[in-house]
Amino acid sequence: MPVAIELAGESLVLFRDRTGAIAALLDRCPHRGAALSLGTVTESGCLECPYHGWQFASDGACTRVPLNALNDNQRSQLSAVCFPTKIIAGLVWVFTGTEDVPELHLPLSLLEDSDRYVIVHEAWNAHWTRAVENSLDYPHVPFVHQNSFGRELNAVAQTDVIAQVNVKAIPNGMTVRNRLNTFPSGIEFDWHQPNCVVIKFDLVGMPVRSHLFAIPINARQTRFMQVILPYLGMDQTSFDIVQFTAPVAEDRIVIESQIGEVPNTTDECNVPTDEPSLRFRRWYYRVVKRQLPSEVTVIEDVARLSR
Ligand code: FES
Ligand SMILES: [Fe+2]
Fold first, then answer.
1. Among 43, 67, 163, 291, which is 20 to 30 Å from 264 by CA?
2. Cα of 26 to ligand 1 centre, how many Å?
């Protein structure tokens, strides 16, 4: 069965060829533009258009045009648009760009632990950059999550405690260390360009890794996906997945209230704990938007100035 998806503003159709490999084509027939996802997969593993029955192989090559006597050379000019796919850790990765397929820089933990994770995802009415920024943001926890895992932090945030957010560059991303000046331990986030944030925390002394992906559906919608790696040896049947995934609904309400993509670095007010967000915005405007990031003014807090 072909499956229609929307990814980064493109309508795609996914199907399995005869070898079981997953193919991704533009969901638009090169003949008269019908949606190929309304068609069927033939016994030979080609995708047949629902309109005039043209057939396409997994690389987009046109393999049959009914009612016309065309030779191979003529058919070779009738290809559908094909996108490269790769299956890593049980997930299908599709490259929708037009340049050469770049190396994927996935967090190693995801590649190593592919057989024992839990995946939850849903579509948000938000730009993907807002979701990434939220995943990198520590100071929202006591407020957005005051009725779940941020309850204790909410009480602390009512005092004059100061959050210390330290950012360190790592290849293709950054590590963010968050802690309170009154408390020795904290929580760490890794950002992997462009859209993955790994939340690293301990549960009963064992490491749990929550991989958050903000996958652009289009300019207004994002598929927010959580891939959670319980620690090795954790009893999967007693793993309370809801405990980890439910608070994301709290984020969603706030993120959907933000309008459009993240603004450039000078377009909003910033404080020291916004450093991860500012780094992300600088990268987004320089690399993705190909614009120069603007110089930013950060309002320093008194404690930091007096250090
Ligand atoms: S529109 Fe697809 S075969 Fe004609
Ligand atoms: Fe959150």
1. 163
2. 13
- CA atoms of 107 and 196, how far apart (whole Å): 8
Instruction: Return the amino acid letter for 217.
Output: I
> How remote is the CA of residue 89 from the centroid of ligand 2, in Å?
25
* Tokens linked to 67: 């009612």
Tokens of 296: 């930013």
Q: Which CATH architecture has domain 108-305?
A: Alpha-Beta Complex (3.90)
Ligand 1 contact, 228 CB (< 6 A): no
Q: How many CB atoms lie within 10 A of CB 108?
A: 10
Output the CA 269–ligand 2 centroid distance in Å: 20
What pairs with residue 119 in β-bridges? Answer: 227
- Ligand 1, closest atom to CA 32? 1
Q: What is the pLDDT of residues 18-36, one digit of tens each?
A: 999 999 999 999 999 999 9
pLDDT digits (tens, 9 = 90+) for 109-139: 666 655 677 888 999 999 999 999 999 999 9
The CATH superfamily holding the domain 3-94 is Rieske [2Fe-2S] iron-sulphur domain (2.102.10.10)
Task: Say if 3-94 and 108-305 have the same CATH topology.
Answer: no
Spans of all domains in the chain = 3-94, 108-305
